[in-house]
Amino acid sequence: MTDLRTTVVVITHNRRRELLRTLDRLAELPERPEVIVTDNGSTDGTADAVARHHPEVRLLRPGRNLGAVGRNLAVRDVTTPYVAFCDDDSWWAPGSLAGAADLLDRHPAVVSVTARIVVEPHGTEDPIVRELRESPVPGPPWLPGPALGSFLAAATVLRTDAFRKAGGFHPKLWLGGEEELLAVDLAADGWWLVYADHLTIHHQASEARDATLRRRHGIRNTLWFTWLRRPVGPALRRTVDLARTVPRDTTSLLAFTEAAAALPWILRERRVLPAEVESRLRLLEPVQRASKARRYTG
């Protein structure tokens, strides 16, 4: 069942054990995808372990932690029409990469396909899945699944050329909700993003993570995205709403302070979304406020 349509891109930093498990699972896939790993400056021997245990993997060593931009670096080397992102603590289920490629083949206006996320070791659905399945974003009847306003990088297959044309992940956002800006820019280019319930990716969260830093970056990136792309009125409302609802702690204060310090470059790069894309974001706001699965801002 070798499938030459999709390359898997993984970024990693100091998660040697988890990454090797993921690469073992990817090597077992019937699609036999090419895999590119960007090692974001690991100091625990991750890169050497990959070279030793998985010599078939294309390994990139930029020498520093690029965050999500490590994915951009890897996509430069992708020669397949589709690219599947995967975190170092997650792996695609057999047949799901081929299934996503089939959807993209059949629907040329769809740019991304996000899969159902199953949390291991217990095999339960991630709480975010319900929100993806019940997305309020309206879409044309021919879409192969619910239309989305954004995507989850660790569970999504995208068109390689569209990703490159949109500029990939913004270098200043690093990690933490970095997908939202790219998603709306793809939508502004006329693409549709969809969820596919019959595709699956497994996620076994690594214990090697800094949840505090991730939340700080998530709040900051939400503010930056809002100020970069939303009209003035919705941007002000979203900012006030975040200020009211995030935890009142040092992490949130640092996030708002860091976000405000970036206003000069934000104003230089600000580009308001087309009205039809902005209308989708307004439909998503009640869901975001009520979400019990928000990973960063709640």
UniProtKB/TrEMBL annotation:
<dbReference type="InterPro" id="IPR001173">
    <property type="entry name" value="Glyco_trans_2-like"/>
</dbReference>
<dbReference type="InterPro" id="IPR050834">
    <property type="entry name" value="Glycosyltransf_2"/>
</dbReference>
<keyword id="KW-0328">Glycosyltransferase</keyword>
<protein>
    <submittedName>
        <fullName>Transferase</fullName>
    </submittedName>
</protein>
<dbReference type="GO" id="GO:0016757">
    <property type="term" value="F:glycosyltransferase activity"/>
</dbReference>
<dbReference type="Pfam" id="PF00535">
    <property type="entry name" value="Glycos_transf_2"/>
</dbReference>
<dbReference type="InterPro" id="IPR029044">
    <property type="entry name" value="Nucleotide-diphossugar_trans"/>
</dbReference>
<comment type="similarity">
    <text>Belongs to the glycosyltransferase 2 family.</text>
</comment>
<feature type="domain" description="Glycosyltransferase 2-like">
    <location>
        <begin position="7"/>
        <end position="131"/>
    </location>
</feature>
<keyword id="KW-0808">Transferase</keyword>
